[in-house]
Design goal:
Blueprint (H helix, E strand, L loop, with lengths): L1 E7 L4 E8 L2 E2 L5 E2 L1 H11 L2 H19 L3
Antiparallel strand pairs: 1-2, 3-4
């Protein structure tokens, strides 16, 4: 999971964070979502990817903002 900060262009303040799913091979190469998402959708694995990414982003949110 990679995170991309969202910035308010009017005042340069951070307004949010976007969670991005990435596939990193053991070699360190990052596979584009355009390559693996269609296969995941065809095979039904997209449901598991979605569940895992939601859980991971929820855990990260609790660590960064434990309110």
């Amino acid at each position: 999971m990679h995170y991309q900060v969202q910035i308010n262009a009017q005042n340069n303040s951070i307004i949010g964070v976007e969670a991005l799913v990435r596939w990193v091979q053991s070699s360190g190469e990052i596979i584009s979502p355009a390559s693996f998402i269609p296969i995941a959708e065809e095979t039904g694995l997209i449901v598991e990817i979605d569940r895992n990414s939601n859980e991971k982003s929820d855990e990260t949110t609790l660590i960064l903002d434990p309110k």
